[in-house]
């Protein structure tokens, strides 16, 4: 995982004081959106999921405020991603009353093993992709059990997830070139806006 160090490798030049103010601004707005929906929930599993998103986003935001040395922030963020994905599984199970099949659980376990291996031994692109694939897999598996009038939310969330993945790949590959052309533009904040949208639609879906 030495090729990428969150949040140092994100594509917004750090400043004194608040390290990456544009990303922080978008993330603070995301926190307020999550908090708003947290007080709208009626089911315990929705509360658990949205609360897990709140924890994730608070730690994520703090990481853009203060850059701690070494891989501590990256390790915390990636561990929280496991917790959030587990909360997705609980939420969809309780929402649909449909237990995941043994085959699907085995598939998720294999993905988890791949993700752990990738995190310790491969580059960022691999473990970022495997972590998102767990999220995509849960959404896709439960899509068929969601009422048809709510399925559009899942499609929007999936589309935003793919957008975030594409923006991350672009940032990973082209950050240097982009900053050489526009050195003061906070490119990572664009990715955070996509993150804000996905938080909104996830929270909206689980508070309908």
Question: Can you offer a commentary on this structure?
Answer:
The chain crosses the membrane at residues 20-39, 46-66, 72-95, 102-120, 126-145, 152-169, 189-207. Keywords: Membrane, Transmembrane, Transmembrane helix. The protein has 208 residues and is mainly α. The protein has one domain. Helices cover 75% and strands 0% of the residues. The chain is built from 7 helices and no strands. The chain has helices at 21-38, 44-65, 72-96, 102-121, 124-143, 151-181, 187-205. α1 (21-38) runs antiparallel to α2. The protein is globular, with a radius of gyration of 17 Å. The model has no long low-confidence stretch (mean pLDDT 92).
Summarize, please.
The chain crosses the membrane at residues 20-39, 46-66, 72-95, 102-120, 126-145, 152-169, 189-207. The chain is mainly α and 208 residues long.
Average pLDDT, to the nearest integer?
A: 92
* Cα end-to-end separation: 39 Å
Summed up, the domain count is: 1
Q: Bin the strand percentage.
A: under 5%
- Got a strand count? 0
Helix content: over 70%
Sheet of most strands: none
Structural class: mainly alpha
| Overall spatial form | globular
Low-confidence spans: none
What's the number of helices?
Answer: 7
Radius of gyration: 17 Å
- The H/E string reads HHHHHHH
Keywords: Membrane, Transmembrane, Transmembrane helix
Transmembrane segments: 20-39, 46-66, 72-95, 102-120, 126-145, 152-169, 189-207
Task: Draw up the topology in text.
Layout: H1 21-38, H2 44-65, H3 72-96, H4 102-121, H5 124-143, H6 151-181, H7 187-205
Helix pairs in contact: 1-2, 1-7, 2-3, 3-5, 4-5, 5-6, 6-7
């Amino acid at each position: 995982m030495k090729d990428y160090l969150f949040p140092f490798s994100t594509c917004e030049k750090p400043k004194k004081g608040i390290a990456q103010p544009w990303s922080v601004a978008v993330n603070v707005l995301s926190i307020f959106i999550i908090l708003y929906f947290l007080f709208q929930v009626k089911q315990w599993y929705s509360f658990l999921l949205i609360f897990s998103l709140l924890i994730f986003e608070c730690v994520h935001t703090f990481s853009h405020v203060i850059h701690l040395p070494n891989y501590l922030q990256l390790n915390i963020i990636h561990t929280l991603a496991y917790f959030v994905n587990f909360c997705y599984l609980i939420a969809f199970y309780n929402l649909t009353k449909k237990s995941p099949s043994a085959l699907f659980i085995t598939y998720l376990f294999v993905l988890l093993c791949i993700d752990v291996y990738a995190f310790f031994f491969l580059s960022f692109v691999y473990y970022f992709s495997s972590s998102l694939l767990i999220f995509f897999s849960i959404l896709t598996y439960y899509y068929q059990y969601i009422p048809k009038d709510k399925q559009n939310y899942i499609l929007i969330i999936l589309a935003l997830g793919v957008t975030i993945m594409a923006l991350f790949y672009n940032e990973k590959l082209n950050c240097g070139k982009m900053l050489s052309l526009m050195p003061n533009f906070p490119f990572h904040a664009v990715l955070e806006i996509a993150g804000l949208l996905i938080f909104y639609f996830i929270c909206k879906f689980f508070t309908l």
